[in-house]
């Protein structure tokens, strides 16, 4: 989970990435750092947020690749 959060922090802080993508990365970070749900549920919720924003045609290729890396890391989280 720490790897995915690190990747998402880089996206959220990059001013070359559109604002809505940075906002989605920040929202996914908040979900992952929450304490309400189990790690698997948090990962699933974050994946949902990231998959929705990964369809944006205005997203730079490096950001799309980074989001796919974060999703890949989150898919490995189980309870």
What does this structure look like?
This protein has helices at about 1-15, 20-35, 40-55, 60-75. The protein is built from four helices and no strands. With about 80 residues, the chain is mainly α. Helix 1 (about 1-15) packs antiparallel against helix 4 (about 60-75), helix 2 (about 20-35) packs antiparallel against helix 3 and helix 3 packs antiparallel against helix 4 (about 60-75). It has one domain (about 1-75): de novo design (two linked rop proteins), CATH 1.20.1440.
Number of helices: 4
Q: How many beta-strand elements?
A: 0
Instruction: Give the overall pLDDT as a whole number.
Output: 94
In the CATH classification, which architecture applies? Up-down Bundle
Q: Detail the poorly predicted runs.
A: none
The CATH class assignment is Mainly Alpha
Instruction: Give me the CATH superfamily.
Output: Ta0600-like
Structural class: mainly alpha
CATH topology: de novo design (two linked rop proteins)
Q: What share of residues is helical?
A: over 70%
Query: How many strands, which pairing sense, and closed or not: the largest β-sheet?
Result: none
Indicate the overall shape. Answer: globular
């Amino acid at each position: 989970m720490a790897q995915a959060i690190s990747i998402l922090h880089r996206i959220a802080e990059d001013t070359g990435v559109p604002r809505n993508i940075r906002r989605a990365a920040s929202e996914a970070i908040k979900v992952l750092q929450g304490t309400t749900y189990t790690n698997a549920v948090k990962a699933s919720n974050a994946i949902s947020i990231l998959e929705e924003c990964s369809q944006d045609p205005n997203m730079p290729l490096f950001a799309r690749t980074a989001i796919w890396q974060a999703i890949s890391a989150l898919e490995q989280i189980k309870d």
